[in-house]
């Protein structure tokens, strides 16, 4: 009888309990421990190994629907790059990513006293998909139509004077929630040019990307909000991802409880006469 | 101005959440507005970041008049709005498909071969053994030319492959749920921290 009732429970109760599970830790932090995984440490080490003053390219290949997971990740990676004195060329394979990159880049640069043109430049979104990436290998300026995100000529930026093609940067750091993203960079740039490619992605993409990590084609991969939280701890800048982990854990516990109850209900309910 | 932006984002978020109750005009308004904004943003960014600088710098200032040919080729796509000239719109599509197919054939094999060679490893750890068994069993699952009743070993191996894939699908499902929860969490953080400011 109990299990039959549970099968017909109003879905709004399930929604409400999920919201409660997510919101409670915001008011009462549980402080659950966050251990650092080897994959996250690898990304951190890759960034640490790049000599200060070297240029890297950060590709913001994510869309507005993934900002909850990707903004903190992009912020943490860019923060470490700026902290280490790396020169950063921002880029995006999508129009939304370019706007998000500008906001994060300018905010962090303001806080960390970095100058546009010497410490970082934002190329923006350049339409053309993989053709643009391929062109970057031969002539990065031409691929970017010779202008930055705001239409200013690249020739006016000191940082760009030594970056004429993609191989002039030490690494490609990609923050992506799908396609175009990592795979395009791998196929057309980092694979043929044998350049390091690392970064992070949303949790939903992680299983699909693991073969690339296992093969070494992605040198390192931050995995969703959890990976970002670990990274924030490594760079000693706990932020949004760390504070979200309690809510994440509680909501996952809630989901596991629902799965167990659902399966118990299926097996223990009163079976209809036809055995279904 | 920032406050206005936060209020707009909060009200649109609530309009989208209202779909949980049922389809309604607020949700539809939010959905249509999002689609319109994305299209408009894409068009403006493309024009200012690529079309305008290419036209002004490369064609007008540098005199690279050969670029007019691909530009005209691209413009042919708009002939689809005129029934009598519709056939012309297939030319840029054919060019693009041919170029894309050639590109993929040139670049993808290198990526895939690396994936295959990376599955050749020493069986010196439990992880490697599991990976090896999973790869082989999954391949066997997709061999349909040999009769599994005649060769029972194929059937057993295929069922291991099936279980391997089921575990992979479970992992993918779990990751998807984690991502969706995170989206909801992001919106709740925004509403409570930035809009209502009841949480620090």
Task: Tag the structure with descriptive keywords.
heterodimer, A: 276 residues, alpha/beta, Rossmann fold, 2 domains, 11 helices, 6 strands, B: 200 residues, mainly alpha, 3 domains, 6 helices
What are the SSEs and their pairings?
The complex is a heterodimer of chains A (276) and B (200).
Chain A: H1 2-7, H2 11-27, H3 38-49, E1 55-61, H4 67-83, E2 87-92, H5 95-111, E3 120-125, H6 130-138, H7 140-143, E4 172-176, H8 182-193, E5 197-201, H9 206-215, E6 220-223, H10 224-234, H11 240-268
Parallel strand pairs in A: 1-2, 1-4, 2-3, 4-5, 5-6
Chain B: H1 2-17, H2 25-61, H3 68-75, H4 90-117, H5 126-141, H6 152-195
Helix pairs in contact in B: 1-2, 1-6, 5-6
Structure description:
The complex is a heterodimer of chains A (276) and B (200). Chain A is an alpha/beta fold and 276 residues long. Chain A has two domains: 2-30 and 246-268, no CATH class; 38-238, Rossmann fold (3-Layer(aba) Sandwich). Chain A contains eleven helices and six strands. Chain A has helices at 2-7, 11-27, 38-49, 67-83, 95-111, 130-138, 140-143, 182-193, 206-215, 224-234, 240-268, and strands spanning 55-61, 87-92, 120-125, 172-176, 197-201, 220-223. In chain A, β1 (55-61), α4 (67-83) and β2 (87-92) form a beta-alpha-beta unit. In chain A, α3 crosses α10, α4 crosses α5 and α10 (224-234) packs antiparallel against α11. The longest helix of chain A has 29 residues, at 240-268. The two termini of chain A are 17 Å apart. Chain B has 200 residues and is mainly alpha-helical. Chain B has three domains: 1-63, no CATH class; 65-118, no CATH class; 125-200. Chain B has six helices and no strands. At the A-B interface, α2, α4, α5, α8 and α9 of A face α2, α4 and α6 of B.
Number of domains of chain A: 2
Question: How many DSSP-defined strands of chain B?
Answer: 0
Distance between the termini of chain A: 17 Å
Number of helices of chain B: 6
Count of spatially separate domains of chain B: 3
β content of chain A, as a range?
Answer: 5-15%
Major beta sheet summary of chain A: 6 strands, parallel
- The CATH topology of the largest domain in chain A comes to Rossmann fold
Task: Tell me the radius of gyration of chain A.
Answer: 22 Å
Mean pLDDT, all residues of chain B:
90
Q: What is the H/E string of chain B?
A: HHHHHH
Please describe the biggest sheet of chain B, giving its number of strands, its sense, and whether it closes into a barrel. none
Quaternary structure type: heterodimer
| Dominant shape of chain B | extended
CATH architecture classification of the largest domain in chain A: 3-Layer(aba) Sandwich
Order of helices and strands of chain A: HHHEHEHEHHEHEHEHH
Task: Give the proportion of residues in helices of chain B.
Answer: over 70%
- Overall structural class of chain A, as computed from helix and strand content, comes to alpha/beta
Distance between the termini of chain B: 22 Å
């Amino acid at each position: 009888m109990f299990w039959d009732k549970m099968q017909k429970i109003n879905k709004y109760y399930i929604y409400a309990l999920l919201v409660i599970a997510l919101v409670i830790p915001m008011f009462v932090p549980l402080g659950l421990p966050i251990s650092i995984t080897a994959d996250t440490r690898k990304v951190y080490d890759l960034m640490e190994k790049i000599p200060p003053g070297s240029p890297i390219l950060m590709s913001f290949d994510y869309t507005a629907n993934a900002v909850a997971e990707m903004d903190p990740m992009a912020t943490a990676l860019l923060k470490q790059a700026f902290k280490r004195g790396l020169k950063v060329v921002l880029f995006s394979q999508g129009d939304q990513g370019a706007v998000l990159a500008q906001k994060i880049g300018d905010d962090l640069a303001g806080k960390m006293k970095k100058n546009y043109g010497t410490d970082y430049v934002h190329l923006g979104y350049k339409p053309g998909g993989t053709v643009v990436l391929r062109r970057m290998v031969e002539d990065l300026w031409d691929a970017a139509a010779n202008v930055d995100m705001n239409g200013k000529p690249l020739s006016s930026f000191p940082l760009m004077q030594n970056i004429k093609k993609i191989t002039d940067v030490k690494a490609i750091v990609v923050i992506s929630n799908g396609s175009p993203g990592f795979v395009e960079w791998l196929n057309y740039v980092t694979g043929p040019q044998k350049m390091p490619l690392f970064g992070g992605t949303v949790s939903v993409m992680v299983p699909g990307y693991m073969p690339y990590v296992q093969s070494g084609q992605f040198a390192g991969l931050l995995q969703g909000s959890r990976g970002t939280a670990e990274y924030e701890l490594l760079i000693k800048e706990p932020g949004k991802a760390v504070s979200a982990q309690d809510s994440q854990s509680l909501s996952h516990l809630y989901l596991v409880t629902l799965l167990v109850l659902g399966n118990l209900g299926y097996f223990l309910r009163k079976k209809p006469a036809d055995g279904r | 101005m920032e406050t206005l932006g936060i209020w707009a984002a909060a009200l649109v978020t609530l309009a989208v959440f209202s779909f949980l109750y049922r389809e309604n005009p607020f949700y539809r308004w939010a959905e249509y507005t999002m689609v319109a904004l994305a299209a408009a943003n894409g068009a403006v960014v493309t024009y200012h970041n690529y079309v305008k600088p290419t036209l002004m710098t490369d064609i007008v200032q540098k005199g690279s008049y050969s670029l007019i040919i691909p530009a005209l080729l691209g413009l042919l796509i708009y002939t689809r709005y005129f029934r009598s000239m519709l056939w012309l719109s297939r030319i840029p599509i054919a060019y693009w498909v041919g170029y894309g197919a050639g590109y993929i054939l040139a670049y993808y094999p290198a990526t895939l071969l690396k994936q295959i060679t990376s599955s050749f490893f020493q069986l010196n750890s439990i992880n490697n053994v599991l990976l090896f068994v999973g790869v082989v069993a999954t391949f066997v699952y997709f061999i349909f030319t040999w009769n599994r009743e005649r060769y029972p070993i194929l059937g057993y191996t295929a069922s291991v492959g099936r279980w391997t894939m089921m575990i992979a699908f479970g992992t993918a499902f779990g990751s998807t749920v984690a991502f969706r929860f995170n989206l909801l969490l992001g919106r709740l953080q925004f509403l409570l921290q930035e809009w209502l400011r009841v949480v620090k």
